[in-house]
Every structure is written in structure tokens, then in C-alpha cells.
Amino acid sequence: MSLTRRHVLASLAAGGAGALTGTGSAALLGDTETGRHSLTTGLVDLRVEYWLVDGPGAVGGIDPADPDGVVDGPRIDVPVETLDDDEPRGSMLVRFALPQPDGGANNPASLWLRTACPEPDPLAEFLELRLSSATADGTVDTTIAAGSLRDVTEQVRAGVRLDPATATDENGCLTDETFLLVEYDLGLYVGDGTTSLPLYVAATQCRNADPATNPFGPIDEEDCPPGYVCDCCWAIGKVEIDDGGFDVGRTYEFTEGVVGYGIRVTDTDGDDAVAFELVATDGGVAPPLCEVRVKGGRNEAVYGREPDTYGTTTDSLDGNTDGLVSTPANRSNGDGYGISYVLVKVCAPETGWDCPDDLVRSAASGGGPGRGR
Fold first, then answer.
1. Neighbouring residues of 275: CB distance < 8 A, sequence distance ≥ 6
2. Model confidence over 147-156: pLDDT tens digits?
3. What is the model's pLDDT at position 370?
4. Per its UniProt record, what InterPro entries does this chain match (predicted)?
5. Which residues are paired to 238 by β-bridges?
6. In terms of domains, do 240 and 173 share one?
7. Number of neighbouring beta carbons within 10 Å of residue 362
């Protein structure tokens, strides 16, 4: 069974970046913490343009002479429209270029990137994001950061130096132009939401300065606050297993339920107990577990999540033993039955008054969406 999302309205509140005269920095994809980002001296002018490559709002093709947008101020709205079930993903190519003065070349510059924490919201946990150095046609060269929106923010918000493979001098400084590809995907998000990614860029002169010096000021030591909610306990998949049990280290895709997700087995105890991590098989973001049901014999053992705990591994569940979740015990001898299936439920936000419809049901289930714990 494949996933059909309902009520998915995940608009990216997007700002832009552009021609920078005297300031040397700009905000991309939102501008919520501009005042907190102090910059050192030695900044140089930088021109920033973008193309919507695919997804909502994209017109198709990349014309180097005709960008979709150029910014002459601190913020504009990049027309990234609503992500939904028909268009759940998209990408944007950004060009950073040093203005070339008449009759000469600009001084080489060290290019830096930084983010700020998004508002704590479920969409910031589910929205999959990848930032990559790219070529002029949008081909990925090197991945800079990947994960959920909040994961990427944590990886980049202290400031990272971009290391373009082309148009650099012997010190890795930019001499002409380089490109950044921003890719975004709704993943398993179901609900309504709006979020933003404040993304800042700064170019500092390389001559008479250390190009490895971070131009951004210090950040708060605390991590970005999480935005998980567990209004709904949503059954998304089931792994049925033959006699013999699970193999440690193997990833089992769901045999029923949403495609592209499964469990990676981390431990077993015979054929009646298993420890695992919920994973996206394409390397994307997996939501936190709400409940796991382990069937053996005629019955299931039910493991709900620990209060105020959000995790993708079974050691986050109430009643686990060193991460292991087991089948019910055989009343006649006290031993566990061999596992016949594992059913996985995840935390999901409520949309209006509704929870998403379960994609799988247990053998003993009467139906209906589960409620959050």
C-alpha cells in the first residue's frame, strides 16, 4: 500500500538573497533572526541569484542569463508555492558571484553559510532538506548538510565555509561564481503547516586575512528547540517475518503500509524479541515512534512511548528491556512465542479534528486512528 496524504499544505515561507552593496550578507528562505547575526569586518560585495529548478512554482530550465530572482535588499519572497500530495518536493539553485569591476577582476573571497533555528513546529521535524555545492546545471557536487529542517539547522547554524570545486584560487577562495542547490521534500508529513529556513551568506576578502576565520558572531549554545507533537498515533507499517526471526544489522522494509520505510534491526534475543530503529530506506527522515505491537501466537504485546520522549528506536518505548520488545509469553510454559509481525505507529499532528487514517491494522484491531500518548 502506498501513502496518500490528506490535508498537506506545507508552504515554505521563503525569503531571497541578492545583490549586496556594502553589506556583504543576505538572507535566503526567510529572515527571522537577522538581528542576532553579527558579522566581522572585511566583507566584500556578493551578487546572489536563484532559479526554481523543479517543484511548485518552477517554470523549468536554468537560463544563466535569466534568473528567476535577484535581490537588492535584505529580503524578498521566493515563490516556493504550496507543497502537497501532487508536488511534495522541489529544489532551488542559487548562484553566488563576485561582481566583476570594469577592466579587472574582483579580489578573491571566502564564502560562508549560516542558518538560524526555525520555529519549533512538526513540519520542521518532518521536512527533509539537503544543501549541496552544485554545478551550474544543478548537478550535486558535494553535500553540505542533510536531514530534517531542524537537523540541517543544527549542522550549519554556527557557520560553515563553502568549498566550491571550481572558480577558486590555491587557497580555496572564490574568484568568480559558485552554486548552491537547496532540495526539500515533505517526507512523511501529514498536516497543515508553514515553516521557514533562515539562511545567511557572507563573503570575506582573502587577501591580508585568514580565509578560514568565521565571519559570523557566536551562537547560543543551546540546541534548536524540537517541534514534535503526538496528537495522533498513526499506524504506518507492518513487517511480517517467517520462522527463524530477525537478523541483526539487516533493514526490513514494510511488507504492508507506507513505502520507503522500514526497521533496521539492532539486537535480538532468540526469535521472540527484537530491538530496532525506524528508518527511511532512502536515507530520509523517520518520525518518532508512538507505539509498537509485537505479535506472537494469537496475541500482541503493546509498547507505547515513554511520556515526553520522542525517539525512533525501541529503547524510547515504555516496557522495553535493554531496547528489546517481545511477544506475549506462552501461559503454559512462560516462554515467548516466535514473532509473526511487528506493527509500527508513529507520532503525527492532528489536522483540524482529524487524525490520518491508519495504513495497516493489527490482527486484533477494531479499527480507527489511534490517539497520541
1. 265, 266, 267, 268, 313, 314, 315, 320, 322, 323, 324, 325
2. 999 999 999 9
3. 38
4. TAT_signal
5. 256, 343
6. no
7. 17
Q: Could you tell me the CA-to-CA distances from 373 to 120, 193, 347 in Å, in that order?
A: 19, 22, 9
- DSSP string across 23-67: S-EEEES--S-GGG--B-S-B--BEEEEEEEESTT--S---TTS-
Could you tell me if residue 29 is inside a domain? Answer: yes
Residue 341: CB atoms within 10 A of its CB come to: 18
- HSE-up of residue 190 (Cα within 13 Å, Cβ side): 28
Structural domain includes residue 255: yes
Q: What is the pLDDT of residue 103?
A: 54
Query: Is residue 238 a contact partner of residue 341, using CB atoms and an 8 Å limit?
Result: yes
Chain CA centroid to CA 79, Å: 20
54 occurs within a structural domain: yes
273-280, strands of its sheet edge to edge = 251-253, 261-268, 273-280, 325-326
Q: Residue 98: give the domain boundaries.
A: 9-205
Task: Out of 8-12, 182-186, 349-353, pick the least confident.
Answer: 8-12
Q: Is 303 within 8 Å of 316 (Cβ atoms)?
A: no
Classify residue 18 by its DSSP letter. B
